[in-house]
Amino acid sequence: MNVEEKILGCWALESFTFDFYNGNSITPFGESPLGILIYNKCGYMSANLMKPDRVKFASNDQSVATYNELSDSANYIGYAGKYVIHENEIIHHVETSYFPNWVGTSQRRFYSLSDDKLTLSTEPLMNGGVKVVAKLVWNRIL
Fold it and tell me: I need a surface site. Which of 5, 28, 40, 93 has the fewest CB within 10 A?
């Protein structure tokens, strides 16, 4: 089975860390983040992850959300688009995203795949004015 076939399916998020160049790391969505990552045969992917203890909005009508409720969206990441696999990386060509600046960009993810565990790492990115590498560990669920 080749890498393209091994990566297909649904993955549940096990951990999400920001690794700093000084050796420190943090877990921005806590110790038990929630997330689903999907790669399908059509060449599309979708990633959704969030902090598990997000506070529910006071109303089920999203259009009346308060500033504080909307600011909690920083505890959510979601995007989707086509993907291609190269030797040691997966490129996500972002078509939709919670972060509009990603739409139309290519997000490079370095990967390692072992049995039913997939680890994705980003290129260095800015977070709070500091460069970090995001590392996400996923477990196969389908």
Answer: 5
Could you tell me the two tokens for 53?
């203890």
The C-alpha torsion from 116 through 117 and 122 to 123, rounded to 10°, is -90
CA 137 to mean position of chain CA atoms: 10
For 25-63, the pLDDT digits (tens) are 999 999 999 999 999 999 999 999 999 999 888 999 989
Angle, CA 20 vertex, CA 135 and CA 90 arms, to 5°: 30
CA 76 to chain centre: 9
Domains of the chain: 3-140 (2.40.128.280)
111, with CB counted inside 10 A (0-12, 13-18, 19+), is middle
- Whose tokens are 């959510």? That residue is 76
pLDDT tens per residue, range 68-96:
888 888 899 999 999 999 989 999 999 99
- Predicted TM-score (pTM) above 0.90: yes
Distance separating alpha carbons of residues 89 and 44, to the nearest angstrom: 15
